[in-house]
Amino acid sequence: MAFTYEGVLLFGVVFFFGYAFSALTRHQNQSEVLRWAFQAWIFGVLAIYFVWSWSAGRRTLPMKTVGLRLLGPDAQSLSPGRAFARYVAAWACLALPLWVATQVKAWVAIALFAAILVCVLVDRKHRAPWDFAAATILVHDAETPVAEEAPAR
C-alpha cells in the first residue's frame, strides 16, 4: 500500500520538477544530451526526496500513514549515506529488469521481478534486495497511532 501511495505522490513531484526542467532548458526531446541531463535531474530530485525522508528518523507521508519505519543495522535511524545507498540499490534492483526487458526478452525481466518478490517472501524479516545491499530493514512501527474511531453521538 505504501509503495502505491508513494507512486501517487511522486507523480506530482516528478511532474513539477520535470516541467521546471523542460521550461528552463526548452527541452523537447530533440537532444540526446538533454535526455540524459533530464534523467540525471529526476534521479537527483528523487534522491534528495528519499535521502532526506529516510535519514535522521524521518519518514515519507506514505510511511507515516501505513506505520512504517526504516532502521539501520544497529536498529537506529539511517544516516544520509546509508539512505543514499538504499536509494541507489533500489534503483538498480528495479531498473535492471526493465533494462533486461528491452535488451533480452520480457520473460527474463519477469523472472527478475519474481526473484525480487521471492526474496521478500522467503526472508523471515521480509527484506527486499535493496535492504540487504544497504543493511536496512523496513519495520512496522507499533508506536504509530491507528486512526481512532469517531465518537458516537
Can you give a write-up of this model?
This protein is mostly helical and 153 residues long. It has one domain (2-140). The chain contains 6 helices and 2 strands; from the N terminus they run αααβαααβ. The chain has a two-stranded antiparallel ribbon with strand order 1-2. α2 (32-54) packs across α4 (80-103) and α4 runs antiparallel to α5 (106-122). The longest helix has 24 residues, at 2-25. The mean pLDDT is 87.
Write the layout of secondary structure elements.
Layout: H1 2-25, H2 32-54, H3 61-66, E1 68-71, H4 80-103, H5 106-122, H6 129-134, E2 137-140
Antiparallel strand pairs: 1-2
Helix pairs in contact: 1-2, 2-4, 4-5
| Global geometry | globular
Average of per-residue pLDDT values: 87
Rg over CA atoms, rounded to whole Å, is 18 Å
Q: How many separate domains?
A: 1
For the largest beta-sheet, the strand count, sense and barrel status come to: 2 strands, antiparallel
Please state how the strands of the largest beta sheet are arranged side by side.
1-2
Helix-strand topology string: HHHEHHHE
Strand content: 5-15%
**Quaternary structure annotation:** single chain
How many beta-strand segments?
2
End-to-end CA span: 32 Å
SS-based class: mainly alpha
Counting H and I runs of at least 4 residues, what is the number of helices? 6
Low-confidence stretches: none
Helix share bin: 55-70%
